[in-house]
Structures are given as structure tokens and as C-alpha cells.
Amino acid sequence: MSAQLTDALVARAVAQSSLEWKLTHPMAFGLTTASPLQRAICRIADGIPLESLAFDRAVIEALGHADIPSEAPWEMAILSGIRTAKSLIAACGAIHMALTCDVSMLRPGEIPRVSVVSLRKDLADVVMNHLVGSVKASPLLRTFLMGEPVGDGLMLRHPSGRPVEVSVVAGARAGATLVARWSAGAIFDEFPRMVGGDDGVVNWDDQRRAVVHRLLKGAKLWHIGSPDAPYGPAYEMVVEHHGNPTPQLVVVRAPAPSMNPVYWTPERIVEARAKDPDGAKTDVDAEFRTPDEALFALESIKRCTRTTPIVIERKPGNTYYAAMDPATRGNGWTLVVVTRDAGKSVMVRADEWTGSRDEPLDPADVLEQVSGILLGYGVTTVHSDQVMGDALVKLGRMRALNIVQWTLSGPQKFERYNTIRMQLDRGLIDLPPTPHLRADLLHIRKRITPDGVRIQLPQTSDGRHCDFGPALMLALSKALPEPADQAPPPRTGADDETQRIREWVNKRWGTKREEW
User: Fold this and answer.
1) What is the mean pLDDT of the chain?
2) Suppose 225 and one of 30, 191, 319, 481 were both cysteines; which one would form an S-S bond, judging by CB atoms 3.0 to 4.6 Å apart?
3) How far apart are CA 173 and CA 202, in angstroms?
């Protein structure tokens, strides 16, 4: 057998080898100390049975104690702490996708592309360095390189002889790599920080939409990173799919020591927690964090959110309160209904209608539906802000619905929102598992201004303005109990003040002291 033929056979064997082999073999990417979880991730991506790895505790917990589909998912999310070889795995995955994609349907001259989309240029450079360094250092992978790497990419020779480009880009430039070509795969690095265009970062929704219908047969989408704020596409993906894998999507979420126990020794973990307890939550534990300026804590919202049901039917003897936040274009028109039950303020349901600039909502139609919902709870009054003013009140009156419009100052709003925060922290509010509700609450910010603390409702990447927040605030303002120990309002006059204090002390401690 000629040396040329032997080289060709070796090259084909390397190209068709598993992702695990490429990642761990000394003559490929060389991660010889790969953990059981890192190996399991490779096997899941290839649709290879986990075998004994299925019984590894770190693997079981990272998969949410769920059975993995036998076939390879075409979409994966890998969320873990830092220093866990995520960028190296991303680089190896890009090479693997380029060498194993099905190019049989391509026309002559068409060059498919594997895109690695990172958040910033310095992060993209890390992946690019792994790509170039590993390929050049490997005598087996180097044979696939067509010319020298240029700029932010390199060209590889597919086993079919076709060129396949691997492109690593950052930020807004990423969009150009995902359109106008067939895709052999796409990897979104630092995925949890891709929360949309409102923060000047990669708009993941648009990027994914641009590539998903350009994928070649067998091409994959990967989403990699460390958890960040508890909202956005990464957080929603974990909430909805971790522990619930499908042939389409598998979500892996793991603390840093489970991914890389060689680096994350017990001593290093203790040191990380001592230096920065808050940072260790994301960097070590792979937990989502509550932003410093967020009004509501993630832990409080999670603790107060019931699993089921989404809607609680009317309970005889209970009084119900309703509030809404009207909108017709882009923002959601939200409605919440609350009651007091078993010592808690219970949101029995949360509804939303969403229009667009091209197809705005019809207020009359929405109010007809609102009226029907509230009738089931014996409610004929709904509280609202002054959006659409008298016109909305008139439309409501035509449907036997009394709309009470509120105008609140900044301090009044903060007082009401802050009361809700305290009730949530004490576990005294029961929330439904309604889509958008948790994200809306977590987006609400408190800002310190020269005039005091103010509430801000920032716009999210999908055009929302925390739309459930105002409705919840108005409804709970009616349903929350008055603080038991609240002192009466101040009055003028020494005699009146003395009597006021005496009455309050007698009520608070049950005493009958006439003289002090």
C-alpha cells in the first residue's frame, strides 16, 4: 500500500473519529485528563451510549437526573463554572463539525462554514488561539489545514475534498457569518451573556434564527458558557429544558468541580469562596446570580413560585382583586388576579395579550376577554394606569367593567414595589409558573437618584417593559395585609401626640398604662 494511500486512510479515520477521541487523544486536542462529565458531553453530542459514565454522579446531576435520548441532539447547551475547558471544547467541536458535516447536497463552489460566535473580541481570540494552536500542534489535524489561518478563521479540507471554513467572530460582526452560506454548525460561546441588543451584546435570538434554516444535514448548534443573570435565553433554556432532554435539545449544567476536578481542588474552592462569595456562585457553583440593582431576589421568586397549577379557580368566600397594564403594540397587555388565602397573597392567574406595530391589539376585544375572565372571580373592578385614559374607561363601562386608573409618584411606586419585595423575601406571596412573569420581575431595577430611590422597568430584547410588574404592583397593593406593627400617622399638638403614642403602645403590647 502506497504512503499516499495510507495517509489518506489515516486522514479519513481521524476525520470520522468521535468528538471524545479528538478532544482527548494526545495527537489531537490532547485533553488527556478529561473528566467523566467532559467525556459524557462528547458522547451525548455524537449520540454514543454513555455506558459506565451514565452511573457517574457528576454526569447524573449535570443532566438533571434524566435519561438521555439515544440519538445525537442537534442542539446542546453546556453551562458550567469557569476553568472547565469550555473554550477548548468549543474549538474541538468546531473542528469536529467541519470534518463530519454532510456536504453531499452542496453545489460546486459552495463552501460551508462553522461559525463560533463569541461575545467580545478578546473572548473570540481565546477560541481562535485554541483552534490554531491545537491544529498546528497536531500532526494528525494539521493535514486538514488548507493554507495558513487568516484573520479570524481557517480553512479545512473535508474528507470529500471540499473546503470547509471555520470562522470565529465577536459581537455585531457575528451576523455576517451566519447568513448567505450553508452552515456546518454554529457555536455560541459565552451564551448566558447574550441577552439581546438592548445591552449592546449579541442578540442570540436573531443570530440563532439566521442560522437554523441554513444547517446542513447533521450540523449542530452548541451554546456554551457560565451562568450569569437569571433572565434571557440561557436562563429560560435551563428552566424549561434542564432535566427534560429531547432529540432536539439537551441542556448540561454543572458546577466547575464536576467538569474539571483536576483544577478545582477542595482547597481552591475554599479559596474562591473566601475571596468572592458572590462570584463563586456563578464561577464555581454554576448558579445564576441576582444583579446588584435588581429589586427582587431570584431565590425569593423561586421559593414563592408554585409548580402547578398555572390558574387557580375561584374559591367560595375569597375576595379577589384585579389589575392590568394596557398596551397595544410590542409590549404585553397584562392582567393579574390576586386574593388572600391561608395567610398569603395568592396570584391565581396572570394573562397576557401581545400585539405588534403591524397588528396592534384591539382594546375593545382585549377588554371583552378581561371582563369574561374577571366575571369568573366575581370581579367587576380592575385597577390600571392611565394608558389610553378616558377612552379605556368608556370601553370598560360598555362591558360592565369598572376601570380605576391610578397615577402614582416615584416614591409611591417604590413604596409599593418594596412592600412586595419584603413579602416575597418572607415567602408570603404565591406566584404562578406563568411564562414571562419571573423574567419580568427579575428585570425590575431600583435606582438611586437625587430625589431618592426610583423603580425602573427596562426594555428587554423582545420589546417588553417588565409588563407583569405594574399589574402585579397594583393588584397586590389591594391584597397585601396592612403591617401589624405600623405606628399611626403623625399628628400635631403635644397632647394629641402623647395620646397617640399611648394608644399605639397599649395596642402593641397589650398594656394599660395611663401614666409613664
Assistant:
1) 86
2) 191
3) 9
Region(s) of the chain under CATH 3.40.50.300: 3-283
- pTM across the whole model: 0.68
What percent of the chain stands above pLDDT 90?
Answer: 58
Would you say 262 and 33 are in contact if contact means Cβ atoms under 8 Å apart? yes
First-to-final CA distance of the chain: 110
Spatial distance between the Cα atoms of 401 and 382, rounded to a whole number of angstroms: 7
What gap in Å lies between CA 50 and CA 207, rounded to an integer?
31
> What homologous superfamily does CATH list for 3-283?
P-loop containing nucleotide triphosphate hydrolases (3.40.50.300)
Burial of 343 (0-12, 13-18, 19+ CB in 10 A): exposed
- CA-based nearest residue to 218, from 340, 380, 100: 100
Domain 304-479 belongs to what topology? Nucleotidyltransferase; domain 5 (3.30.420)
Residue in 171, 172, 129 with CA at minimum distance from that of residue 152: 129
Residue 304: HSE in the Cβ half-sphere, 13 Å Cα cutoff = 26
Closest Cα partner for 334 from 473, 134, 442, 501? 473
CA-CA distance, 337 to 372, in Å (whole number)?
Answer: 13
pLDDT at 516: 35
The rounded percent of the chain whose pLDDT value lies above 70 is 86
The three-class DSSP label of residue 304 is helix
Q: Where do you find CATH 3.30.420.240 in the chain?
A: 304-479
pLDDT at 488: 43
Measured CA to CA, the distance from residue 256 to residue 264 in angstroms comes to 7
Q: Angle at which helices 86-100 and 121-137 pack, to 10 degrees?
A: 60
Burial class (CB in 10 A: 0-12, 13-18, 19+), 61: middle
CA separation for the pair 113, 97 (Å, rounded): 10
